[in-house]
Design goal:
Length: 214
Amino acid sequence: MRLSLLLITLCVALTACNTVEPLPTLAPKPPTPVVDSFQDDFSKDLGIWQTFVEAKAAAEIADGHLNITVKEPFTVSLSIATLNLNDFDLTVVTTQTSVGTANGYGVIFRYIDNKNFYRFDIGGDSKWAVSRRMREQWIHLSELKSSSAIKPNPASNTLRIVARGDAFEFYANGTLLDTINDSNLPIGRIGLFASTFDDPKTQVVFDNVKVVKP
């Protein structure tokens, strides 16, 4: 079943204030029990990731990738998996296939609902940030900054998150970007996303998602 998920219009970049509520047109699938390991190369649709096609955005599994396209400025599109995780070591290969650098993309984790989750962003300009959305508020856990470890567009970047309890490690292409502690969301689902700011369109393909116990 193809599900239409979350389109979030932002008031400013990355970890925005006064974010308009996500607009799900169908309820997401219920999460699976907590898993210890998982791997998906997107060679076929396993029914785990939410896919949709809408006027503003799309998320489709095709050609061995999860392709997320955003078609309007200041919009975020998410594809949430049914996987429920507490402690995990996750890697994913990301490739921005559109031009432009005024964008963001990356990993959602410990997702409870559209008001409670963590987000690890990178962008085509080599910047990155980590934020928490909780009770309809955005909190910066790591401010937006540049890193030479993140390859600017056009390029592929391998992202990694290691979560042990309230301790998180964030990597890009094997380089540790930061270690952050936050105990607000102990368990939840994972997801992938792409977003636009000034760019009118962004497309990102995701591949080789791997999850193991840390």
